[in-house]
Amino acid sequence: MKARSEEVARLLPGPLRAVVLTVLLLIVLGPLAYMFLASVSSDLAVARGALWPDGFHIDNYAKIWSTTNLGRGLVNSVLVAGAVAVVSAFVALLSAYVLVRYAFRGRIAVLRGLLALQSIPGTLLLLPVFVLFASAATALGVTIIGTRGAVLITYLTFALPFSTWVMVTYLRELPPELDEAARVDGASPWRVLTRVIAPLSWPGLVVSGVFAFLLGWNDVLFASVLTNPDTRTAAVELQIFGASQEGGALPVYGQLMAAALVCAVPVVALYLVFQRYLVAGLTTGGVR
Amino acid sequence: MTSPRRTATRRGRPLWMFLPGGVLTLLVIIVPLVLALYISLLDLDQYSIREWVGAEFIGFENYVEAVRDSNLVHAIGISIGYSALVTVGCLPIGLAAAIATQDRFKGRALVRSILLVPYVLPAFVVGSTWRIIFQPDGVANGLLGTSGLWLNGPRSFWALVIVALWSGWPLVYLLAAAGLQSVDATVHEAAALDGAGWWAKLRHVVLPQLRGPVSLALVISFLHNVNSFTLPFVLFGVPSPYDVEVLPVLTYVESFQNFEFGLSVAMAVVSLILVAIPMAVYLRAVRLDTGRGLR
Amino acid sequence: MNRRSFAVLASALLLGSTLTACGSDEGSDSGDNSGVTLTMLMGVNNIYPEQQRAWFTEVSDKFKQETGASVRFETFASANDELTKIQTSVVSGQGPDVYALGTTFTPTAYATGAFVELTKDDWDKVGGRDRFLPATLGISGPDQEHEVGIPFASRPFVMAYNKDLLTAAGIDKPADSWDALRDQAKQLTKDGTYGLAIGYADGFDPWKFIWAMTIQAGTPVVKDGKAALDGPNTKTAYQNYLGWLATDKVVDPAAVGWKNAQAIAAFGDGKAAFLPMVSASSKVTLDKSKVAGKYAYAVMPTIPPGATSLPAGGVGATSILSGDNVVVAKYSKHKDLALALVKLMTSEQMQTSYYKTFGELPTNQAAATALGSDPALAAIVESAGKSENTPFTGAWGQVQLELTNVVVQSIPDLSAGRVDDGKLTGLLGQAQTKAQQALDKAK
Question: Given this structure, which CATH class describes domain B63-294?
Fold first, then answer.
């Protein structure tokens, strides 16, 4: 039975799919392969623009851990980005549920506003956010700048508009009969949300979470001003490493590329794990 | 007899669910935004930043200077131009990837993850790598058999488009792929019963279902590219070559290198307005905000 | 029921977030010094990263011994980061107590008014103003009464040259005028090697050439609040600089895309005879390259283009006054401790050991004299003595940007092998307007 439904759900003929995938993989892997080759080349070779390494300098991968604080940066990044992903997906689900299922005055305005917020450039908000945190710190007598909490709150908020929109888009696809059925049974909105809606919105939650994680993982602008050397994320460490090479002596291209690849691995691994949940989706339970 | 499609109800509205998101947004985005707008009306530069509250109020002078004396108009043109090109280009690639990875095959998990990598890489890394590739004596010229500059001069615009495309298309792929998961099995059954071939099924049945996620992806991609700072900054450096002087780099230079904060915020606000208008029109057109009427 | 479970969930989330959010805490302010931690911001040393970390620990330990307070070091990666850090700290009134700034940024820092102007007492607290080499004090302030910068390290610019290539061509040393250098470069351009290695696409180098040539000609780009970017000498400077590739053909055509790093790489490969506008930091790379042992440093030409001797009113500057100044933030709660830290860092002992570890020249007179006659350093020491400071104005950042912008916008033409006279005039005119605007805003 499963094979039959798979057969029916097939979108592309095999050979065509193979061609498309090959082309895509080439496009993606080309520069990546170059990055890997550069990471094991000598720095002079990369500066010269050579494609093939002139020796196998795999020790670059060992050197990066002492040249920069990449280890601690990675730990900080995982903590911050992980927390941001989880919390933002949940908060987005809350807001999206209300926006999709309930009517209230200003609902469309909020939806439009969410999209408008997406268009605000980061450089605009950098100094004001910093001033805000600094003033709050002075007023409350606590330290805010330099803690992981500062970047966590910032990333969380920045991720919300997009996360909420994603959840709105997916929740719209869920048939309202599910809600009705649950509510007829006497469930409160909270129960409906947690017992019925949330398990079915996994694709949206994963996408929201992944996007939020990426925001926390890759952002440099805010992290560079809101963290101190102990709480720096990997992205800032990488940026600092790269920028510091730009003056005077030859940049250590090999180590730069090695560090860059190392920084990308956790996110790709994460997606490898979670993309299974995208498959589970609506075919488990729900409406048949 | 209940009306089947009516979901929006006024009864028992758990509006408190808005609180976490609302409070955060208010504190971390709205308040700084208002602050920034106030700053755009001040003469805030390196001489007055220390006591910024007391900086001189000059009304709209910053805006006048932004439009008249700086390269703002040109920069907005470049930004919108390249963002539009990239967004349009991302669409077919992202869709193709989503469709091609939808069907189960051996190694699909790995392929799906690899395809995501360009989007996952930090912009700084993408920029650095492609800058090395685009060196005059680098790999790009070597493989294509061309010579000359990619990072300055007329070709630089296309270099930016290429790199932004390479790193941006997985966004469309990501959203479309998740959207494909939501396509009901019954839809496929119905198409099979009708004897539809794969192309017909794609065109008439599957793709229309993706309209929601894909429209969202296009909007996000456009906005993301218009506001993208790190990529052009790392690729071309400052000062920017004229052909790729994009808006975020212009405001960054004005603010963080020239210390002209008031002016730079005014520039950002002007661009925000200019981008928001076509955005609003587009949203209305695809009815993204209302979601095809009240469901 | 729903409210309660929500509250539980929310608190769990909040608790979880707070736990991950617990970052490191800042030093507390107590009566005695033992609880105090000073924060110092410094440029990261990409050539000697481990040694720099060791140096940080060494300084903190010594300081703790002397005063009981410890020092925490923060680093910035590039000039842009440095500026951003200054801004966020100044606008919020909190941040590092002490900053080590590049000398060219001292005027910008001064313009914010956020840094301590050193009185005679303050100078005494750092060991006395006369413990420093007079030349290094040139960019500490607009005048002697208003100084904010205490010189810490000296990194003058020099030119590296390939001894073998010069000997083979019968030249015994680099010329001291730009015209003669160009002629030498022409002699040396053959068989795949070029006379000069220049990084035209570098964000930091090009303006220094223009500055040097114009100040040598007696018409500096900024004087008394007036910009002279559209003057004839400035145009000549650009024509010379760009002409090395376009008309004289003594530079590798690929150099239109080179940053400083690639120019060094080309010289290190033996493909160029002269490598101007480098500092002692290039020594590490060159000693690992093919030209190790075959190169030497010399000062750059001091006679402007079109002349055979220094014209009247011209200044024979070999380099911009380049290095690091240390400034103390006004918002710091521990000013005296900060000054004590600076005193430690600029003492003869620390300066000598700093030089030995990082290769940067000391600003402390005693240490500099003790260095004496290390032949490898002769040119660098000479250049340090003959450096001139860039104009002390808060608008210098913008002027510098405009100077660089002229080169950036000329690169497309340059890569086609020409310098378009009309376009250059136009670019210089625009640069002049913008630079003058910035200077007019200066307070």
Answer: mainly alpha
